[in-house]
Design brief:
alpha/beta, Rossmann fold, 2 domains, six-stranded parallel beta sheet, 15 helices, 43% helix, globular
Length: 387
């Protein structure tokens, strides 16, 4: 969302922000929230009740704090419907979603207790909003299956802040962590949940070691699967080649990516039987000038040029991942040039500014078709105000 807000600002919009997390008492905040919630139904229930109460309160608080805007652009969160209060006052509600949260939180994360209530509220919010921003065609198809009008859904993949994720701005935070610098470093950044497929990568690294191909792995992030994956690395005898760093401050993430030689985005099919994500990490890795090893879902196939900016493997296929890692290992001298091409690719086509430029006229068309007359953002000579 920071990338989207900055993009609107750079394109001349006035942005007023309301961030739900800023309203949460600090005593409620924990770095290991996913782990704690997945381990206790009582904690999930308490958290859900708190989120429901805050959702109602924040709906009114947001309207009180944010005044005189032409659009509301909301990133969907569980039990959340901030834009509804604005919509009731005649302000268009644009709602972005990166997934079916009620489904993921039950089956892939185990972070919800009041699942049926969240499902009802989430589907209601999608139906009520004036425009839905979906990050992939696969997610759009799922939304349509749940009764959402396809005419108001725009597919806008994720992007990247190319000014912030710039390799010229950051020094490596990785090399000093590893005793054997000569081994190439594969890096991962993200939440440690099942669909990230890190167990596949750990197994591949262990198998390739017997062939004389030695990789290091650096994992930045935390989540419910961390303990399991650490134990897997111990059982396979490669724990000394892997560094699990846990959560790091957001402003440190580019420094860690700067120290990777290769990067990994290995999503597997979700428990719903789909993979509808648009992984931010893909864009951030490439913006930092790093070639990627990615599972060949739609977003990666659209973004990564095989052998030019990275390598694609069949999702969930261990043997195909090993094939790709063998190929990459043999082409180490090409990695720096591949990284330069990767950054050039995202700078040219996949910045958040590019996404917003593409998105705005399409949103305008949907709103004008719905309301029949130009809405506030088009009545003046320039961009409007955006919450």
């Amino acid at each position: 969302m920071l990338g989207v807000m900055r993009a609107f600002e750079r394109l001349g919009w006035e942005v007023q922000q309301f961030i739900v997390g800023d309203q949460v008492p600090l005593s409620w905040v924990t770095k290991e929230a996913d782990v704690e919630l997945s381990s206790s139904y009582a904690k999930r229930l308490i958290a859900d009740l708190a989120r429901l109460g805050m959702a109602v309160a924040n709906r009114f608080l947001a309207v009180w704090k944010v005044r005189q805007v032409d659009w509301v652009y909301e990133r969907f969160g569980a039990f959340q419907f901030l834009g509804y209060g604005f919509q009731r006052r005649g302000i268009p509600w644009i709602l972005e979603t990166n997934g079916l949260f009620f489904n993921e939180a039950i089956k892939d994360r185990s972070t919800l207790a009041l699942a049926s209530i969240e499902r009802h509220l989430e589907i209601w919010a999608y139906k009520q909003a004036d425009v839905i921003i979906s990050v992939t065609d696969e997610l759009k198809s799922l939304l349509i299956r749940h009764g959402i009008n396809p005419q108001k859904i725009l597919v806008v993949p994720n992007g990247v802040d190319i000014e912030y994720f710039n390799p010229e701005r950051f020094q490596s935070e990785v090399q000093h962590l590893l005793s054997q610098h000569r081994r190439p470093i594969i890096g991962f950044v993200g939440t440690l949940v099942t669909w990230q497929g890190l167990d596949l990568l750990i197994q591949a690294i262990a198998d390739l070691r017997s062939e004389g191909l030695d990789y290091n792995l650096v994992v930045v992030g935390d989540g419910p699967m961390r303990a399991y994956w650490e134990q897997l690395a111990r059982e396979l005898g490669i724990y000394d080649r892997i560094k699990f760093l846990g959560r790091v401050p957001g402003d440190k993430v580019p420094s860690y990516i700067a120290g990777f030689d290769l990067t990994f985005s290995g999503q597997v099919i979700l428990s719903s039987g789909e993979m509808y994500h648009s992984p931010l990490k893909l864009y951030e890795y490439m913006a930092m000038g790093k070639p990627v090893v990615a599972s060949a879902f739609t977003d990666a196939k659209r973004l990564v040029r095989e052998g030019k900016t990275g390598y694609l493997f069949e999702p969930g296929n261990l043997e195909d991942l090993k094939r790709v890692l063998r190929q990459a290992y043999a082409e180490q001298e090409a990695w720096p040039e591949m990284g330069k091409k990767a950054r050039a690719e995202v700078v040219a086509k996949h910045s958040w500014e590019a996404r917003v430029r593409e998105m705005v006229p399409k949103i305008e068309a949907i709103l004008e078709a719905k309301y029949g007359t130009p809405y506030p953002a088009r009545r003046g000579n320039g961009p409007g105000k955006y919450d």
